[in-house]
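QA checklist item 7 of 12: single-chain prediction sanity check.
[x] sequence parsed
[x] length recorded as 219
[x] structure emitted
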Amino acid sequence: MAISTTLVLADDHQLLRQSLRALLEREGDFKVIGEAGDGLTAAEVVERLEPDVLVLGVMLPGLSGLEVARQVSLRTRRTRIVILSMLADVSCVVEALRNGASAYVLKCAAFEDLVRAIREATAGRRYLCPPLSEQAASIYREAADPTSSDKYEKLTDRERQVLQLVAEGSTSAAIAKRLGISPRTVETHRANIAKKLGFRNQTDLIAFALRRGLISKEI
């Protein structure tokens, strides 16, 4: 009997997760062992279940998919990451690869591209679906040459969580409850974020979150 490749699916659309689960498990050698609808849960589920592959959306509430990728890649060497996104922006693809993703698949791609991405990632290889594959050489070169001037890199994991939740409109009390910390600690994190990133007000924070792809314009 063939050994199954275990998967966790993380996307904020439940219908998409259900559809992917059904399609992927028809392959015979894929087994979905967990799902998550937000970034914080995704990181927790992966840490608990240690799947072979995490299929990860980018625009996740609570914690962006790119930040989930970074945290997962730092915490486990076992789980490979396949990004599934509507965003074809090269800078997003580059950041995904820098954050530990093995593959990047557009949501408009064929299902076969996702299957191939999972198989390539499992084998320890990188994969970019068309039309990104046409720019693969330059994308890989840029991903291998990260800049050191990115202020976002100065933030701690907790500060990144607080930043996104604030950008999504959560109050300090709601953030404290979600993260299991005190409201005063949240305020301290907010002050540190403002200092490190040079924010003068909430408008600066929202503008940064939009540019960074942490939230969408609909939020």
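[x] summary fact logged: The beta strands are 5-10, 30-36, 53-57, 80-85, 103-106, 127-128.
[ ] second reviewer sign-off
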